[in-house]
Amino acid sequence: MWAENAVFYQIYPLGLLGAPHYNEINPDEKNIKDIKPVNRLEKLTPWLAHIKKLGADALYLCPVFESDSHGYNTRDFLKIDNRLGNNEDFKKFCQDCHEKKIKIVLDGVFHHVGRNFWAFRDVRKKKWDSKYKDWFCINFNGDSAYQDGFWYEGWEGHYELVKLNLRNPAVVDYLLNCVKFWVDEFDIDGLRLDVAYSLEPEFLRRLRKFANEIKPEFYLIGETLHGDYNRWVSDEFLHSCTNYECYKGLYSSFNSRNMFEIVHSLKRQFGPEYWTLYKNKHLLCFVDNHDVTRVASILTNPKHLPLIYGLLFGMPGIPCVYYGSEWGCEGEKKSGDHALRPAFDAPGWNDLTDQIAEMARAHKQSLALCHGDFQDLCLTNLQTVFRRRYQDETMLIAINCDENAYFARFDAGCSHAVDMLTGKKITFHGGCELPGYSVMYLRCQ
To answer: Under DSSP, is residue 269 helix (H, G, I), strand (E, B) or coil?
Structure first.
């Protein structure tokens, strides 16, 4: 599958493009058709050159469909949010992406909808008489916090997010038809499934089969947190899922000066032992995203910033970069979601961006980095050297998060290597020296 060799770039469009936080259009107003969408999507086009320069070739867009506010409370799955533009605007943007050989992956928010979702509005109006009452998890013997005259289930207690009844065949058919519409209309290449850990397994199975039929290369990634990712990633469910276990291990290993944590997770997930959990699976890996504190704000030592990206692009999995973080944008979760999803007039570029671009280039040029196994060669609290090997290619990833140089002793399995990041030739003498605060991608010769 194409995604296994890709570098992803994530954008939260409503934030990046400076759209109003709330959709003020009332869907019940008779003159709603007279309200013109604002084409903010055209401001995304200049970012495509930035994405390509960075070395990414897949764009994951957070919600773009009509919603009440942040995108995850959908009103209409068949209509681009008026704060971003209209369907034709988005179709043109997708065409621009494909012309530049950038794949498009959208957020599939199938667990819940907003209170202004068209079918739920019908239930609010007609109550028991609505033909859509079984589309949701409703109890007419209770009442909601909004005094609807009935109780309904929301996502994890958030009642502005109305849970869909995915055991209702009519709901599943509707959602699959929406996916087909997105493929037919926009030619999208995949979906990232919001809160996939809460979706019905049978729904995931049907979605995978349906996706295979309408577009064989269509890629499905699930948002999962912890637990056994094999529950969601398999030949009959999803192709991939978010690797939150290693997300925590990445920043925590640097902040606690304990590289054993991330290496332990990687050995548990991808190591050479027969019981390794996720052999031959490509999980989506990241150092931050739209839901968590920016990596530049969470690392206690700024000099570790390029090093954590060195691990991201060197470890097993599909690397994903969140917009703005490639030049060190800061933002803390405690300040609210809007602090994590800021607007920018144009993309930035600095030394960190240069380094990430080199890592992305190396990742894409190496089958071992895209598909290779994982073998720990040298590990201390402050240094790690591990091997990625695929077919006849061997890559050694060496990280030193200490300010002082360190001679790492390990069996390289070869006498010479070239650092793909600098072009420097290395000769091994029982190991090699790792400069202070360094990343090396060593391809064995």
So the answer is: helix
